[in-house]
Amino acid sequence: MAEDLDGGEFEAVLAASLGRMGRRVLHLDALPFYGETSSTHDLDQLEECLEQLSSGGQGGAYGLHFDEDKIARSIKVAAWEATECDKMGRPVIEDGCSRGRPDRLTAMPSNRRPIMYANVRVEAREEPKQGEAKKHFNIDLSPRLNLSSGRMISSLVQSGVGRYLEFVPLKWTSFLDGSSPAPCLCKIPMSKAEIFQSKIITPMEKRLLMKFLQQSVVLGGVSEAAAGGWAIEGIGESEREQLGFQRAVGHVGNAKHAEEEARLTEKLKDFIALGICFSSRDLPLPKAVERVTTYTRSLGRYADSAFLCCLYGASELPQGFCRMSAVYGGTYVLRKGPSQFLFKDDGSAGGIICNDGKIFRAPLIFCSPFYCPKELLTSPNSLGNDMVEERVVSRCICISERAIGDDGSSLLVLPPRSCDNSVPIRVLQLDWSTQSAPRGLYLWLLWASELGSFDLSSAVTLLESMTGSSCVKRVIYYHQLRQGFWVTPNLSPAVDSGEAIEVAEAIFRQIVGSEHVFLDAMQEPESGIDEEYHKILE
Amino acid sequence: MSARKKVLLKVIILGDSGVGKTSLMNQYVNKKFSNQYKATIGADFLTKEVNVDDRLVTMQTWDTAGQERFQSLGVAFYRGADCCVLVFDVNVAKTFENLDSWRDEFLIQAGPRDPENFPFVVLGNKIDLENQRVVTQKKALAWCQAKGNIPYFETSAKEAINVEQAFQTIARNALKQETEDDLYIPDTVDVNADKPSDAKKFGACC
To answer: Per the similarity annotation, which family is this (chain B) (predicted)?
Structure first.
């Protein structure tokens, strides 16, 4: 049984999990690189990519221009059965591989003008000096961090994909405190000691904060050993059982927690919402508890900080999963994309026709919104309608000669109304330590969502005034969230990468049920080969 | 900035499909060979402890996992390579002609700091099929010389000819590269070296 996949990070996770359990996977992407919207580029590639995938460029350089006549002809030539058209004038071909009476397949064109970005603006004070230096950037189109105890890292460890990757801990996280006349950075303490040493909150607030965190850990069912860097008291086995019981009989814990929450000062609410949950203040309590517990469990796990950055950029993740899938027999083809999707009369998937005219038959197709036929983009999917929405993520990439705050990789949250923003703006600063920029230069990756198209240049101006220097270069662009088919989280504005795993698992479960292990551990390399060779020798 | 405590060498093997990349790795590490060709499935990377000039190093040899078939390896495969092994089949001219593009592909994708001196090793494989041979040793040596004196070995994964010697040279040259590159490599976290969360570190105070 073969399945076709196209696209980015989330498709890569699905390909790996299905390949691992023995499905035949064909992974196509018309682009010349892996990761689609989660890809990472050097400076020249970045500009080319944004230009090609925006309304101005239309993908000519990536071979995304489709010649309608050529495709119509190739359908007829490649599909020897192609003789008739349906009522809409679309070609109908016979499914040559079914037994008995072959199924008729109807072709539906893929999205011919794939546009991912809008309003791309490049403003350069000067180009980085040496031509060679442009190659020493690894710039993420969708920057993402990995919580040490989050779903992404645990999946990498479980499956063995983590062996392909290296990580660098984020040095610090903070949010901008706009309450004082001169805006200053509020660093989020990374240990209990740091909470008590912190000068930004009062002793009373420190105690309230500890109590809230403790409550969250208890609510989250986190054991003492896993409670992590804040050394918050976790709970024992018996208490956990009791807690499970309490939950069942009516959220006693929640009520207590809400009470605790009500006592928090405004500053602490900012502290928790912005600095720990990386969200705005209106995050629902259960979600906040979940985030706080994952965060506290992540502290001190591999390093002081809760977050890990990928060395060489976020696109290492999809590439790692693609390799896992390839190791288990998946076929990988870049620079080749779908031009038509084939459906049976009952509406189920039948296969695809590539832009070179080749036909692949497959009972399962996963498609990123990038290639998705327009007709299917609006239809609700089986994961629930809440994912069918139009959103825009406004993004900006800056290259600066000065760092925000201390040297090193860091995440800064600009709360609402820091400049003219109504939702938090995330700023990820990366430097040479993750191989993101040459030594002496810093990348500021800004993003904010659900604002419509929001101009991030006022946020950049704010950062520039804080560092006392203007950026060498800025690239501002908008990332359109278009949903459909199987919804990819590639474009989501989340900070943590775990979401890709969650959605991929949900779909994996729908397809194969619960009896298969999602992302089962890869065998030891030696034993894998041995078995293969034994099979051949027999 | 950092010195890796344990020396881990990353070696990647490139070349057209069917030249014997997986077989060479497997002969070297597992001392096994299978005559039957099957496009690579299940091969990831093989690890072997190697003694190089009285230094014990761990050599990780990365297979292409079949992703070379449609030139779709992706940049992650090339990251941090300490040595690149180029393989061709002495019985198929095309696989020799393609060495140029594999070398170029590596230099573009991996972007080594000093491309002139990056260690390559070329292996002309399947010399056991002598009467079918089309690429002469002279021709192969001339190519290697023109590309900056790349070491060349004529190998047979089937008969285990020159495999051990070739990989010794690969390890030695990779090690040279490793020490030169140390300055540029930041400290990293290996998520698979799963240490339990170090709660004590923070719990001690207050």
So the answer is: Belongs to the small GTPase superfamily. Rab family.
Q: Do A332 and B76 touch (CB under 8 A)?
A: no
Question: For chain B, which residues make up each domain, given as ranges?
Answer: 7-183
Instruction: Report the distance separating Cα A109 and Cα A105, nearest Å.
Output: 13
Provide the whole-model pTM.
Answer: 0.83
Residue pair B92/B56 in contact (Cβ under 8 Å)? The answer is: no
Residues of A whose CB is below 8 A from B203: 192, 231
Do A195 and A295 fall within a single domain? yes
Residue A529 within a domain = no
CA distance B88 to B86: 7
Which of B67, B71, B191 is opposite residue A302, by nearest beta carbon? B191
Give the nearest partner residue to B188 out of A166, A228, A525, using CB atoms.
Answer: A166
pLDDT for position B1: 34
Pairwise pLDDT comparison (B147 vs B183), residue with the higher score:
B147
Examine the domain organization and report whether A417 and A511 are in the same domain: no
Q: Is the pLDDT of residue B157 over 60?
A: yes
CA A512-A359-A20 angle, 5° bins? 30
Same domain, A326 and A300: no
Can you tell me the distance from the alpha carbon of A412 to that of A339, in angstroms, rounded to the nearest whole number?
42
| Count: domains in chain A | 3
> Does A226 lie at the interface with B, CB-CB under 8 angstroms?
yes
Mutation site, A195, A302, A536, interface B, largest B CB count within 10 A: A302
A494 and A353 in a common domain = yes
Sign of CA dihedral B20, B22, B27, B28: positive
Quick check: is A291 in a domain?
A: yes
CATH of the domain at A461: 3.30.519.10
State which residues of chain A have pLDDT below 50.
1, 74-83, 95-100, 224-229, 231, 234-238, 240-253, 379-389, 481-491, 525-538
* Domain range for A268: 191-232+243-249+261-308
Q: CB–CB of A442/A401 below 8 Å?
A: yes
Do A284 and A372 fall within a single domain?
no
The predicted-structure confidence for A406-443, as pLDDT tens digits, reads as follows: 878 999 999 888 888 888 899 999 999 999 998 888 99
- Beta-carbon contacts of B101 under 8 Å, excluding residues fewer than 6 positions away, are none
Please give the pLDDT value at position A82: 41
pLDDT tens digits, residue range A275-333? 888 776 667 767 777 788 888 888 888 888 889 999 999 999 999 999 999 998 888 99
Q: What is residue A518's predicted lDDT score, i.e. its pLDDT?
A: 83
Residues A70 and A141 in one domain: no
All residues of chain B having their beta carbon less than 8 Å from the beta carbon of residue A528 are 42-44
Quick check: B203 and B24 in contact, CB under 8 A?
no
Long-range Cβ contact pairs of A499-507 (< 8 A, separation 24 or more): A499/A151, A500/A9, A500/A10, A500/A13, A500/A152, A500/A317, A501/A13, A501/A151, A501/A152, A501/A155, A502/A151, A503/A10, A503/A383, A504/A10, A504/A13, A504/A14, A504/A17, A505/A17, A506/A383, A507/A14, A507/A366, A507/A383
Interface with A, mutate which of B29, B40, B181, B191 (most A CBs under 10 A) = B191
- For residues A360 and A496, membership in a common domain is answered with yes
CATH number for the segment(s) B7-183? 3.40.50.300
Q: If you measure CA to CA, which chain B residue comes closest to A433?
A: B186
Mean pLDDT of chain B, nearest integer: 85
Would you state the pLDDT for residue A492? 56
| CATH label of the domain that carries residue A298 | 1.10.405.10
Residue for token pair 């499970």: A244
What is the rounded distance in angstroms from the CA atom of residue A534 to the CA atom of residue B30? 13
B8-14 vs B83-89, strand pairing mode: parallel
**DSSP letters spanning A376-430:** HHSS--TT-GGG---EEEEEEEEEESS-SSSSS-EEEEE-TTSSS-SS-EEEEEE
